[in-house]
Amino acid sequence: MLEKLFVYGSLRKKGYNHHYLEGKAKYLGTYYVSGELYTLKDKRYPALLDSDTEYSVGELYEVMDDFKEMDELEGYDEKNLKNNEYNRVVVEVYDKNMKKIDEAFMYKYNMDNAKNPERLGKKIEGNDYIS
């Protein structure tokens, strides 16, 4: 089964976790999703939060595997949504002109987890984790 995955942090091409996608995903290009990026105080990867006015840059992939390994990496358990670090959600994907081109899965930082809001750091300039 082929699914699409949008990544904006350590899974991107120049990210330290990109190896999780190698051989399992086809790169489709650089695109955008609605949201803004923040650092996390105790981590080396970013958090994406909802935004009505800002867009974050990332990469779109066609994934040729199930999401089991990705779910584990992202701290996602479909039976424990409230306590996850990230939740896998479906988002709209936009091109550079902000025209919707597709929908994809994405791991979004879970602000419903009581521990997560206090871990937010600074807003990432330009909403581009790897620039």
Automatic annotation (TrEMBL):
InterPro entries: AIG2-like_dom, GGCT-like, GGCT-like_sf
Database matches in Pfam families: GGACT (PF06094)
Regions annotated as coiled coil: none
Transmembrane residue ranges: none
Signal peptide: none
Alphabetical list of CDD domains matching this protein: GGCT_like
Domain Gamma-glutamylcyclotransferase AIG2-like: 5-129
Protein name per the record: Gamma-glutamylcyclotransferase AIG2-like domain-containing protein
